[in-house]
Amino acid sequence: MPSLSPPISFSVSEILSLPEIFHREAISPEGFVTSIQAARYPGMAAKVKDLSALAKKLQFEYVKEIAGTSGLPVRPEESEKGSTFYLLRRPLIRMGPPEAAGEGVSRRKVLGGFLVAPEDRGKGILETRAFADGKDLIVVVSLEDYRSAIRGTAPTASLRTWLYLQTQARLHETVGKRFLRGFQPS
After folding, report:
1. Which residues contact 68 (CB under 8 A, 6 or more apart)?
2. Which terminus of the chain has fewer Cβ atoms in its 10 Å neighbourhood, N or C?
3. For residue 92, which of 74, 106, 105, 109 has the smallest C-alpha distance?
4. Mean pLDDT taken over the chain
5. Strand ranges (DSSP E) for 22-64?
């Protein structure tokens, strides 16, 4: 299926060593989001024996970071069907289980929840990617083809786009940066 989000291109050379975190985001006129955060871990590539296992592990670690970053009493629940984040009893976001998508790549579908535009459930993808660049390990976290319920589907939703960019988009960036700064490759 072709991407609904605007593409973001970047060079591996743009990803600097920690504590710097690469971040870029784009939103299409229809409201589909691409958000990317990446970090370089100098000299750590040799410590990772299985990049695909690491990519899957990153998915579970990232889920923990989502719950801990918002400042709200968000409670994650894991099952064989995936992850759900609750605020009180309301499901904010539901994601499927991590699935391998190539060497060093793991993806989860964003299945629904209060923060997901109802007509776009199942379209969003949370992807983690791990690869070597010489002796360095590169970790990339991206959200693609996601449309927030805050933003909605109206093509002229400028106020709603602004609200999304000031709230949920900032949270995506904060979670990604905090996660990458705290992650310890092993």
Report:
1. none
2. N
3. 74
4. 89
5. 22-27, 33-41
